[in-house]
UniProtKB/TrEMBL annotation:
Signal peptide: none
Top-rank taxon: Bacteria
Protein name in UniProt: Helix-turn-helix transcriptional regulator
Record bears the keyword Nucleotide-binding: no
Keyword field: DNA-binding, Transcription, Transcription regulation
Organism this protein belongs to: Flectobacillus longus
Residue stretches making up the HTH araC/xylS-type domain: 188-286
Length: 296
């Protein structure tokens, strides 16, 4: 599975890019014929187009006025049945994390870093005009290559776009209104740690220790907020990484087992089959590429 890097796909030195989906289909649809991932953040607004979008091995039907917020490392591929229209915004950590509260914004809105509860968001067309206006301002600023403080202006406009999205999609975000802010904060810190440490730490006690709580309290809190215990989140993240690595093609079970800290290949194979119901070899056999896909 290929990993696209922002500095490789755009000549811009801004750590940022904005294109229409039509332009990307015309100029970059042949970059790869397999699922791929990015090392940067991607916002995709599909205004029109039919087909499917596969994200981390979940397949979603495309609908008009659908928004996708992809975090670094998420594997995805589009399969369009009709020509798409819309926008794709790409930016990396260097672009957005200049100010610490910007990173908190990406996490706290619930739009990004939601591997365990990933889903697209949809809007009625009547509610998209404000977002369209912000995007037009972003596009004008992006094309103004000689602008003073251009990156600062783009960063501010993207931040405004994300805040507006968070407001519009608030009713579609994972519900947390029944939980105290303290519990939600703990869960977000846990999920952040899992993303950073899942290949070295696979026990709830490891994370509880880092978060200064007891394992039972962490498990209960995570289950209360998300519907699944902390242990299940860890397992899901490990399995997801195994599937991502399997898509590299020639990576063996032994290599993946070593990368993810399993004792040996036998332990790795048992872990995978217990969770997925199939052996790793069976999973690899079903990874044959399907029809032509367009990638962003």
């Amino acid at each position: 599975m290929k990993t696209l890097r922002l500095e490789e796909v755009t000549p811009s030195k801004l750590h940022f890019e904005l294109n229409t989906m039509q332009w990307l289909e015309e100029h970059r649809s042949e970059q790869s014929n397999e699922m791929h991932k990015h090392d940067y953040y991607v916002i995709i607004w599909v205004k029109e187009g039919t087909g499917t979008h596969t994200v981390d091995f979940q397949q979603f039907e495309l609908h008009p006025q659908t928004f996708w917020f992809l975090s670094p490392g998420q594997a995805h591929a589009f399969h369009f049945q009709s020509p798409p229209s819309g926008y794709v915004i790409s930016f990396d950590s260097d672009f957005f994390f200049t100010y610490e509260n910007n990173r908190e914004l990406l996490i706290d809105t619930g739009l990004f870093h939601n591997t365990f509860q990933f889903k697209p968001f949809t809007l009625d067309t009547s509610l998209t005009f404000g977002l369209e206006n912000i995007l037009q301002n972003i596009q004008a600023e992006y094309q103004n290559r000689d602008g003073i403080y251009q990156e600062d202006m783009l960063r501010s406009l993207v931040k405004m776009f994300l805040i507006q999205c968070a407001r519009l999609f608030s009713s579609q975000l994972a519900p947390t209104h029944d939980e105290s802010s303290k519990s939600v904060c703990l869960v977000r810190r846990f999920q952040d740690l899992v993303e950073l440490r899942f290949s070295q730490k696979n026990k709830v006690a490891d994370y509880a220790d880092q978060l200064s709580v007891t394992p039972s309290h962490l498990n209960d809190t995570v289950k209360k907020v998300t519907g699944q215990p902390a242990s299940e989140h860890i397992k899901q993240r490990v399995i997801l990484e195994i599937k991502r690595k399997a898509n590299f093609g020639m990576v063996s079970a032994k290599e993946i087992a070593f990368d993810l800290g399993f004792e040996d290949e036998a332990h790795f194979s048992k872990y995978f089959k217990n969770y997925t119901g199939q052996t790793f070899s069976e999973y690899k056999k079903q990874l044959a590429s399907h029809s032509k896909r367009y990638f962003f």
